[in-house]
Amino acid sequence: MDLTPADLRLLLAVDRTGSFTAAAREIGLTQSAVSHAVRECERRVGAVLFERGRSGARPTPAGERVVVHARQVLRQLELLRTEARDAAAGSISGSVRIATFRTAAAHLLPPVLDRLTTRFPALKPQVLVVPELARGAAGEVADGRADLAIATLDDNAELPGLHHGELFTEPYLLVHPAGHPDPRTLPLLDWPENCSSYTRNWWRTQDWLPRRRLDVADDSVVLSMVAQGIGIAVLPRLTLHTTPTGVRVVELGPDQPTRRLVHVTTTAARHSLAVRELIRELRATTAA
Q1: I want to staple 183 with a disulfide (CB 3.0 to 4.6 A). Which of 112, 164, 176, 281 is the partner?
Q2: DSSP state of 269
Q3: H runs (alpha helix) in the chain
Q4: Are the C-beta atoms of 274 and 147 separated by less than 8 Å?
Q5: Is the Cβ–Cβ distance between 152 and 136 less than 8 Å?
Q6: What pTM does this model have?
């Protein structure tokens, strides 16, 4: 027998809470009923899904894959109902879940979501801001937590099982305190999300950049510290959407580093009406 939607919700509750007891409280069952239901799910799937122990329940490798598919299946069932009603009414409603990094959420998404919700007032965007590290925003789509991601992508990178489309490529720019007599005597400011190949290879060839470096929380902190005269930085243009007083921005020439921004979806999500309209608005904004 196939797993039912109720089975999938139960498995997600165990994964989310980390124990059968906590999952039982969350969904209104007894601990023994949850334990029995999980065993039955495991029998149907043909694999152990959770490791049981004193510290609770942790998904096995098989369980990790099952909970990802559970999120995706339940989301598709939700969209089935919503989009059927929308097709009958000639509208778009429900939620659309977007994962992205901080500067895209702050500077790229607001006009996009303003136009989208003006056109479709019953549509409710949900924005999840995640660091663009490791799997980043695209990983939220792969794990079933988002319908669409706005992410950065290296030219030679692959996204197995996902679909992506180009948004734009933006340059990195040099920023330093305005009026400083010799900015190169200041330390170079860096942040964890600036860890991809976008700038690293370029930086290694720039012997004029300061060797002294300060690592800070994120690019907004970097920009604030530049304005305070603490250091210099190489920042993407999107971070410089609003440049504070006291900061000078300098082009880095024809060999300047760049980064590539894309939208990312699953095969199923890209057919959602809300996702298609969101992509249309993103492209209209970035093409302007």
Answers
A1: 176
A2: G
A3: 5-17, 20-27, 31-45, 61-89, 102-103, 109-119, 136-142, 197-204, 219-227, 273-287
A4: yes
A5: yes
A6: 0.90
